[in-house]
């Protein structure tokens, strides 16, 4: 019998691959069930400089550094995906939990290793970026970075708290003991973020800037972290703390750096699903954000390419597309559950308006675009072959176990051959504003994948894989 859905992207396949990608980003001692076989153990001495064990976690993108601000955001988004869309994931829910736990095991070490300190990264980014070598061969400094009372980092601490709190709910039924540890640690780290105020970029400067500078400040993370702890604990302390912050910016973006829109959508859940009028202002903020995104809104400030892709910034634009798409599907889900509508100017917005925009973004990324390019590696027949990713672009450790050294990989970096190792499921930075994609390894702003692009895409993929993707009339 012919598959009537053959014209649609296979969302279930894309969901499976989006989660498989994280196996290719793993740092530490790889387990027997490691599914990306061309990767091997790496970073096994991480933390030794500070006499602590900081092995594990994920490399954030195509390099070999562990930056905890984007890693914690990645973890929060994976956990949010599991919480909102777990029932639509089928067998992939367990794979999502495995990916979340790989991150939270590391984040727990960072939070619990040394009293009064939160470790926030491993690996000197300046040294690392001068080399093109496999993570298995790293000989660059594995410098350890931390924040403390005297060198605060409210942003990275609150994001870590958000990740641990969100994950605690994911594990609450399947591993209650682990869930309790996650939540207890989240509370401690959030208290640290609140008590010692300051941006981690001010404390760590060139170690995190310009790579993952906290450009939006730390107030958005304080709101986001408290919102997650409120959802996990229902403790009014966090609601009162959020109100004490006195509101926030009205952005038209959502990313590892700027969390306001995510916090507004998360808090609007209280107003919509729990009918709590104390959160009405955050629902209004969420809707103001959405009015800035959707194209048929009179207050839209969002550009779309001729091919229909949301276009926010030239560098790694798909990170914004996946994150914003997550918020659109999630808010539409809350709207549907409560039969809620709202207006942008005189335009009435119903759930299917948000779903329609989301579906177009998801389908564009999966290959329904002017150049018929899937921006997910290994999905479809036409996908990026020369991604900006050290491990993918170099002969694998299993093929050539001889260390390549810092400069040994540049011959592969500058070559035109496709990467020898397919990083299945990786979503690259994406096309330019003219819907073009040159597929050049040195074009990192378009060709580099990252954990936070993928993590935010898991939720929308699960939404459409769960059976609603066949029509915008959900």
From TrEMBL:
Top EC class of this enzyme: hydrolase
Keywords: Carbohydrate metabolism, Cell wall biogenesis/degradation, Cellulose degradation, Glycosidase, Hydrolase, Polysaccharide degradation
Active site as annotated: 388, 439, 448
Molecular-function GO term, any one: cellulase activity
UniProt keyword Acyltransferase, yes or no: no
Catalyzed reactions: Endohydrolysis of (1->4)-beta-D-glucosidic linkages in cellulose, lichenin and cereal beta-D-glucans
EC number(s) from the headed UniProt entry: 3.2.1.4
Domain Glycoside hydrolase family, residue spans: 11-460
GO CC annotations, alphabetized: plant-type cell wall
Short name of one Pfam family: Glyco_hydro_9
Protein name from the UniProt record: Endoglucanase
């Amino acid at each position: 019998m012919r598959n009537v859905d053959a014209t649609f992207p296979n969302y279930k396949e894309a969901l499976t691959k989006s989660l498989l990608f994280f196996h290719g980003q793993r740092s530490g001692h790889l387990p027997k069930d490691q599914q990306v076989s061309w990767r091997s153990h790496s970073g096994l001495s991480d933390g030794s400089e500070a006499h602590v064990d900081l092995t594990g976690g994920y490399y954030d993108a195509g390099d070999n550094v562990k930056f905890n601000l984007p890693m914690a955001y990645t973890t929060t988004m994976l956990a949010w995906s599991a919480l909102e869309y777990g029932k639509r994931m089928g067998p992939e829910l367990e794979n999502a939990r495995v990916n979340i736990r790989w991150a939270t095991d590391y984040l727990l070490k960072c939070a619990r290793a040394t009293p009064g300190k939160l470790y926030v990264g491993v690996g000197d980014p300046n040294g690392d970026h001068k080399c093109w070598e496999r993570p298995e061969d790293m000989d660059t400094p594995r410098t350890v970075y931390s924040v403390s009372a005297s060198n605060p980092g409210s942003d990275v601490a609150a994001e870590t708290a958000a990740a641990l709190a969100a994950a605690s709910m994911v594990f609450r039924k399947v591993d209650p003991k682990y869930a309790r540890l996650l939540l207890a640690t989240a509370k401690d780290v959030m208290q640290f973020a609140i008590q010692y105020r300051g941006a981690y970029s001010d404390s760590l400067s060139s170690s995190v800037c310009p790579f993952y500078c906290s450009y939006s400040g730390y107030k958005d993370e304080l709101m986001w972290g408290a919102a997650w702890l409120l959802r996990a604990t229902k403790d009014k302390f966090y609601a009162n703390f959020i109100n004490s912050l006195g509101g926030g910016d009205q952005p038209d973006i959502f990313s590892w750096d700027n969390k306001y829109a995510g916090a507004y959508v998360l808090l609007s859940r209280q107003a919509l699903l729990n009918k709590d009028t104390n959160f009405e202002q955050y629902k209004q903020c969420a809707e103001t954000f959405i009015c800035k995104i959707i194209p048929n809104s009179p207050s839209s400030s969002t550009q779309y390419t001729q091919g229909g892709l949301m276009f926010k910034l030239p560098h790694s634009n798909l990170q914004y597309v996946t994150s914003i798409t997550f918020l659109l599907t999630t808010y539409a889900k809350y709207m549907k559950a409560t039969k809620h509508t709202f207006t942008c100017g005189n335009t009435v917005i119903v759930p299917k308006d948000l779903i329609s925009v989301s579906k177009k973004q998801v389908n564009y990324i999966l290959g329904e675009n002017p150049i018929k390019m899937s921006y997910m590696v290994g999905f479809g027949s036409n996908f990026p072959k020369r991604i900006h990713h050290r491990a993918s672009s170099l002969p694998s450790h299993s093929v050539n176990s001889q260390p390549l050294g810092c400069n040994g990989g540049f011959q592969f970096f500058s070559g035109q051959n496709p990467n020898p190792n397919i990083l299945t499921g990786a979503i690259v930075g994406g096309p330019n504003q003219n819907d073009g994609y040159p597929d050049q390894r040195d074009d990192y702003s378009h060709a580099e994948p990252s954990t936070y692009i993928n993590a935010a895409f898991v939720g929308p993929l699960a939404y459409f894989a769960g059976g609603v993707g066949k029509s915008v009339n959900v």
